[in-house]
Design goal:
160 residues; 28% strand; 32% helix; four-stranded mixed β-sheet; single chain; alpha/beta
């Protein structure tokens, strides 16, 4: 029988362990599973230096690779963090933009490692799925004007 495993693989310059530990501390039910050292002969890696990291973020598996600066992150890939409350939006947003992260728009940010995130309240998904096209239009207009999502403003927009 073949073992089949899916994990998101992300290429870091040299911060894979630091990023994995930060994310595992930030997201509940998360942990670093293992750190594998580079064997001799890996280009750009000293033998014994952290090479790849396996981690679990709230049940999802990831592998981070210290691969050097060849493939920097861009916004084509992002992690979506769906949360329940404004307090959670605020908490994750603040932690992820701290120490050099950058706010973008519409719930998007780039953390200090260069990885893009979307911090999205459940209310936005619910409101954007409303049966009334006028509600969806008002919510979309409000969403497009926001940087960090404001749940109360999205709810007001939905009510018109």
């Amino acid at each position: 029988m073949t073992v089949l495993r899916f994990a998101t693989h992300l290429w870091f310059d040299h911060e894979a362990v630091e990023a994995a530990e930060f994310y595992a501390d930030l997201v509940p039910d998360s942990h670093v599973d293992r750190v594998v050292a580079a064997p001799p002969g890996v280009p750009g890696a000293a033998p014994g230096a952290p090479f790849f990291v396996d981690l679990t973020l709230n049940g999802q598996q990831y592998t981070f690779l210290n691969g050097g600066p060849l493939f920097p992150f861009d916004s084509q890939v992002s992690l979506l963090l769906l949360v329940d409350t404004q307090a959670e939006v605020d908490r994750y947003w603040s932690a992820l933009v701290a120490d050099g992260g950058k706010e973008v728009q519409c719930g998007w940010l780039t953390d200090r490692f260069g990885l893009s995130w979307q911090v999205v309240p459940e209310a936005l998904e619910r409101l954007m799925a409303d049966e009334d096209p006028a509600v969806r239009e008002r919510v979309a207009k409000e969403m497009l004007g926001q940087v960090k999502f404001d749940v109360a403003a999205l709810e007001r927009a939905a009510r018109g």
